[in-house]
Structures are given as C-alpha cells and as structure tokens.
C-alpha cells in the first residue's frame, strides 16, 4: 500500500513536472505565437505600405514628397515626350518660317536684279541717245569747218581784190566765233549728259549694293537667332534628361534597399517558421504567400523600371536624331548663304566691269569729241 502510494506520489510528481513542462512549452509557444502574430502584422503593414507606394507609382501622384518614385519618373518621361513633340512642331514651324524668309530674300534679290537690268537698259538707251547728238554735232562741225575754210578763202580773195575786204572780214570773223561758240556749247551739253548717265548708274549701283548687304545681314541675324534658340532648347533638354537619369538612379537605389529589406524579412520569417511547430505552419505558409506577392510586386516594379530605361534610351535616340536634323539644316542654310554670297560677289564684279567699260567708253568719246589742234 505504501509502495503503491509512493508510486502514486512519484507518478503524481512526474505528472506534475510534465504538466509544468507542458505549461512552460505552452507559454513559450504562446509567446512565439504572439511574436509571429506581431511580425505578421508588421509584415502586413509593410505590405500595405508597399501596395500604397505601388499604387502611387501607378497613378503618378504628383503630390508625393518622394520625387524618387518610379511613377514620378513615368510622369516626367511622358511630359518630356510631350515637350519633345512640341519642340519638333516648333522646329518644323521655324524651319518653314526660315524657308519662307529665304524665299522672300531670293524674290527680293531677283527684283533687285530686274531693277539692275532696267538700269542697264536705261543706260544703253542713254548711250543710244548720245550718238544722234554726236551725229548732229558732226555735220555742224563739218559745216563749220567748211564755213571757216570758205571764209578764209573768200577773205584771201577779197583781200586781193578790194581794199574794203577788212570791213567784211570782221563780220565773217563774228560769224566764225558764233559757230565756234555753238560747237563748244554742244560739246559741253554732250559731256553733261554723259556725266549725268554715269552718276545715275553709280548711284543705282551703290543703292543696290546697300540693299543687298542689308538683306544679307538680316538673314544672317535671323539664322543666328534661330541657332541660338535651338542651342538653348537642347541644353534645357539635356538638363532635363540628366535630372531624369538622377531620379532613375535614386529609384534604383530605393528599389534595391527595399529588396534587401524584403529578403532580410523573408529569411527571418523562414528561420522563424523552421523553428516553429506544426501549429503555426499554416501561418508561415500565409506569410510566405504574402512574401511571394511582395516579390511579384517587386518584379512588376523592376519590369516598369526596365521599361523606363528602354523609354529613356528611346528619348536619347530621338534627341540624337533631332541633333542630326539640326546639323543638316544648319549645313543647308550655310550652303544657301554661300550661294547668295557667291552671287553677290559675281554681281559686284559684273558691276565693276561695266563701270570700267563705261569709263573707257566715256574717255574715248571725250577724246573723240575734243577738237584736234
């Protein structure tokens, strides 16, 4: 009976010890469960925060204080794309305006050439008008010379025939002086006409040269202004792209830090799940599923980041195409300006040759009209 009672007490103590051990294990499991529940709540809160951040990235909320978010980059990229389109439209408009100005310049140059041709025709008309005067003057000259010879002969005959000849010789001398004065006035009139024609041609040439230089300077100034504006726009675009690159790098760093945090949390959860009992296995699986969902969200963010990188590369290629187009337009404009300068030099040389020919012709005519001794 005592043995049975002792065994019963021993069993009782053993049972009591087992009960205490079970209670201790229960308390530990309860503590672990509370810790796991707290960690699960924290992970759920982190998941909700990540989902809210991901929603902000997708909806492109400009009010967000985190300028490094990926959706802000998407908004900036779309805005840059719109700006590029608007700049392309402005570039096309400015190109058409420049071509219009160049066509106007060509039209004005053609008008100046027509005016120059008309002046040449008027000069040739004046030259054609001058020979009739010379033709009129030459008969007068021949008649006057014949009259002088006749008067001299008559004077010599009368001097031999009659002593009264000196009286009539004075009248003949007056007539001769009158004829010489008329010849001098006619020669002076021809010289005045030639000088007027020369002055008009010189003034016309100077006027045309001044207008051409003004038009050339105006076109050059407009082209310089357009090039300066394009340079400023390209510099602004480069600064914008540099800012986008900086934002993209910051977003990459943020994503990497978040990935590290999630990996660390995932490893911690896996370690804790391995040490937990089968009772908390379902909760661990739920946590793993949520972690997989977080991985999926992170993968989606990485895909969006890759898409942003591709789009940024496309924007760079478009910028390079715009730069190449700008260079082509600049070279075309330079070629046109060189052609205009060549035409101006050719016309200037032609005018100089025409003036030289006119001076030579004028000197020849003066030498021809000058009486020989």
TrEMBL record:
The keyword Hydrolase does not apply. Residues 95-129, 227-332 form a coiled coil. GO terms for biological process: neurotransmitter receptor transport, endosome to postsynaptic membrane; regulation of modification of synaptic structure; regulation of neurotransmitter receptor transport, endosome to postsynaptic membrane; regulation of recycling endosome localization within postsynapse. GO terms for cellular component: extrinsic component of postsynaptic early endosome membrane; glutamatergic synapse; postsynaptic recycling endosome. Signal peptide: none annotated. Keywords: Coiled coil. InterPro entries: GRIPAP1. This is GRIP1-associated protein 1.
